[in-house]
Amino acid sequence: MKRRIRKNMPSLSTNQLIEMGNFFHENHIPYPLAEHERKEWAEEIVDGMKPFLVERDFPYHVYVVDAPIFNAFTIPGGNIYVTTALLSAVSNKDELSYIIGHELGHNENDHTKELARLYKYIEEKQESGSIWDLSKALVTQVATSICGKPDELECDIASMYLLYKAGYDPEKALEGIELLREFGEPRPESEWEALLMSFFRTHPWSEDRDKCVTEYVQEAKVQSECEEIFNGVKGTVATKSSPLNMRAYPIVKSKSLAKIPKGAQVEVICDCVTQKYRPNRDWLYVSYENNEEVYSGWVDKKYIDYEKN
Asked: Does residue 219 contact residue 170 with C-beta atoms inside 8 Å?
């Protein structure tokens, strides 16, 4: 169904998206507009992130809506809405920057453009009187959700990039996810129940978002704190009979990306400063090629023989 919409409904121009956003703002926002003392925080955050956006042509506006739920949303054209309950719940700009960055991420990743095409498709089917096509389009909107769980995680990652570039602290911003967990529906303890309920949710569980974004922040942090960058330094896996695990970030319990056999050659990219993600060990960030596939990740330094430039 989504492919049919993309085939039959061309992408909308920036001006068309802005016009659609203005129409929605005037006619379809489900809460009354309000004022809040922390609206200035949100506007400041948007202004700080604008230089790092790919989509810079939208006249991004922040609106406060009077609602007792912890929520924020965006619509085609760049308008961002935050509830009074959300602004009252955040305790600092870092937490709020995660929320605002996430909503900007929907524009950056073209999710709002896809939704705009869907709305136009539904509008056409309403005018043509094709009940069957209209029904399928509505099912696509409600059930399959163009902005589904993978899109939401994609926006979380975009948010971490934007807020970091705008000068906010990613680790403090992660507390914004804690607020989602506090005010949202708790994830069932039973994996089967959680899986079943996921079919009726458009957003991932807060616990899953926390895990995904925390790993992203940790990996990005350790790479950004490398004290030396090596160019073309080769190393050989040695002193280990079993394959050496390449990790997603420098901690033994992190996800394993690949196994490197003894005697294999790697390219040493950087050595990293001591930090809390490296408990009792030294790690190297390396790349390893196997069957034309190139893997990059962290390995225990003591198992690599190499010489620095």
From this structure: no
Domains in the chain (CATH in brackets) are 2-219 (no CATH), 226-306 (2.30.30.40)
**What does the block give as tokens for 299?**
């390995």
Helix (H, G, I), strand (E, B) or coil at 208: helix
pLDDT in tens, 101-111: 999 999 998 88
Structure confidence at residue 267 (pLDDT): 92
**Cα angle 57, 58, 61; round to 5:** 145
Burial group, residue 165, by CB count within 10 angstroms (0-12, 13-18, 19+)? middle
* 59 Ramachandran zone, left/alpha/beta (phi>0; psi -120 to 50): beta
pTM: 0.70
Residue that the structure tokens 């925390």 belong to: 214
Residue (of 86, 154, 213) closest to 146 by Cα position: 154
